[in-house]
Fold this sequence. Notes:
Chain B: It holds the Pfam family Gluconate_2-dh3. The complex is a heterodimer. Chain A is of the alpha/beta class. Chain A has helices spanning 2-10, 22-33, 71-76, 78-82, 138-142, 152-166, 191-203, 222-225, 250-260, 311-320, 401-404, 412-418, 465-483, 549-568; strands spanning 12-18, 38-41, 104-105, 168-169, 183-184, 210-211, 264-267, 270-278, 283-291, 297-307, 348-354, 360-363, 370-372, 390-398, 424-432, 441-448, 454-459, 487-493, 525-526, 529-534. Chain A is built from 14 helices and 20 strands. The radius of gyration of chain A is 24 Å and the shape is globular. By secondary structure, chain B is mainly α. Chain B is globular, with a radius of gyration of 23 Å. The model of chain B is unreliable at 1-35, 142-175 and 178-182 (pLDDT under 50). The chains are: A alpha/beta, B mainly alpha.
Amino acid sequence: MNLNLDAKKGMTYDAIVVGSGxxxxxxxxxxxxxxxxxxxxxxxxxxxxxxxxxxAMKDPxxxxxxxxxxxxxxxxxxxxARSGGKPGEDQRHMFTKDVDVxxxxxxxxxxxxxxxxxxxxxxxxxQSYRLNERDFTANLEDGHGADWPIRYKDIAPWYSYVEKFxxxxxxxxxLAVLPDGDFxxxxxxxxxxxxxxxxxxxxxxGRHLVIGRPAILSVAQKIHTDGxxxxxxxxxxxxxxxxxxxxxSTQSSTLPAAMKTGRLTIITDKIAYQxxxxxQKNKAVGVRVIDQNTKQHQExxxxxxFLNASTMNTAWIMMQSTSKRxxxxxxxxxxQLGRNLMDHHLGAGASGEYDGLKDMYYYGRxxxxxxxxxxxxxxxxxxxDFVRGFGYQGRGARQDWVAGASKDGFGPEFKDSxxxxxxxxxxxxxxxxxxPDPTNRMRLSDKKDKWGLPxxxxxxxxxxxxxxxxxxxxxxxxxxxxxxxxxxxxxxxxNDKNQGIGIHEMGAxxxxxxxxxxxxxxxxxxWGAKNVFVTDGAAxxxxxxxNPSLTYMALTARAADFAVKELKRMNL
Amino acid sequence: MNRRxxxxxxxxxxxxxxxxxxxxAIVAGYQxxxxxxxxxxxxxxxxxxxxxxxxxxxxxxxxxxxxxxxxAKVGETIQLILKDCYKPDQQEHFMKGLxxxxxxxxxxxxxxxxxxPIDQKTAILxxxxxxxxxxxxxxxxxxxxxxxxxxxTLGAFAPAGSDQTEAKLVDAETGxxxxxxxxNAPLIPFFKLVKELTVLGYFxxxxxxxxxxxxxxxxxxxxxxxxxxxxxxxxxx
Lengths: 572, 237
């Protein structure tokens, strides 16, 4: 009896954080820094900062296939390959092999995963934008989805808080559509980007071209160097892992801070699949896991639980967390769990060439581009064909040998021509908002994975609102490039991509004002299970058109602050 | 500057941001944490085809003021890429192309291609460049193929029920999932492929990056607006 009690005590913490990606790392940092003893559970293997970035310092010629994808890799990483991600030898070890952890597609879905410590914080795109005031009222305004239970003013201080620590590079552009943050210095634009900026802003009132805002230390500040991070070296090899810790990842940023408290325990290779809900206590008491290697089951206990397993896996865990109280999944009285899947649709835009600026070039490789914030359905720019809007990401560069390879010719002059900087080109692609729609969903199928756990089935698409929006994304791009004097403007609208392509999955356990229509309340607490918090992409109520990770960070820091205060008030 | 020097130099400029053991680990090189073993493809060129391929790559990317494709071992790279990244029918098509070049040389000059003077080699490859264009014109365009594939249409309108839990066949070049191998992308004409792989193999080689182009391993800063210097080469990456 005593032995059992001791054993249980050894498995008991103040808080459990499920997942170690962008939001899990923040939960661990905030909770430990506020004095809690925290257990972080990661389903994949350990991945050590710097020493587990095997390709980070390799030169192009050290990859025998030179970026070409081996047939076996295209098959085993089929979702990566299909969505346009390149499972090449330089980076595929950072991605989960799709055949190892299968999923079912009632409608095609691209689910790109990173099952290891740090999750997708290692390979994320790093673009970090605040949602604006109207993003938080969009659902209320046009009636799609539920109303956000919070407004911009509720999250603004938390945006500042996470920006300062994460280190977001950006310019204070003073635009209501893209609120400014607490930035480290902006990166520079190159000549063609400055040219396009001038042309677009002169010809289109209300349209702006700004430098992108990545979570990259353009210039590391004391708060960053104190944590062991250094300034960006402008190699543009971020996806391989940064040995300088220049971009924000769990490994470079939140994990060292959490470890410094001495209150964090990390256990890897444990797949959390269930929150244990105690019907007598009417709250959660722990989580159940299975070891991915030994397949041993195990329970861990805590006063509060943060689910940060990524949108789909957080919903997957909640769906498996059935109890007398929650027969349809944890917090799922509304039947909204697993519904309202959102992403950003992309692949529509334009590119063009420019004959001038022949004597201009650039130095260094910038892991960032330019951004054209939303202008459609903003201010006076009303559209008939669709609601909400889109922004563009893009960049300009001088053509190199890659473009030359498809030109005619060979021999000495051909070779010589490829060694010189080519014509300038400029390219922008839209990122469009998707609407919350309860018929876009994921479920537990009756098929099981190798651990005997249910395999996820996706049944989600883009929705009709994207059709008109994509046309505008393409045509508006072309009209801006032409106004900027670019030639050979080519448009594209690749309608062949599936939801998930943006790797911005959102919405499977949305926040809301009413337990009848949402899964979480305004503090990211699960309705009916107040000591369980969900602060990853699952919590999102609308998708905005900006990259979402910064919002997950801010929601997490905010919820962790609330959780610790509630714990101290003995309310949890 | 080799890798060790480059890393150590950056370590010095960065002060204490990286620990010595971390640096040592990177310099030593590591295996990916998810290394996978695969049964290698049986594809191999015949010895004569190997010599011929080397010769063709050198005509495409010759030695000029900088070393050419042979010095950069482009032929070896192409063989490896063909072996691992292309399907048997494309491999065969490539070998047929090599044999056709040799046959053309024998027919026109009664000599092996490798023995021809450069102008005759160039003339033959020009013929194959033209042939590749004709061949490409006869094939349906990639976009049309994609549009007809039900798996790659806009998700909202795709037919339901494409239940997939197994490995999927993905076209290595386009990334499109194909259900039926016969529906794969049409074969790439010989000259188009050998030229594409020669250009890739050359400019991603150490010689290509560091001699034909300018390679800065660790730029350390970004400057968006820089005057192009007289005779400046393009950046390698």
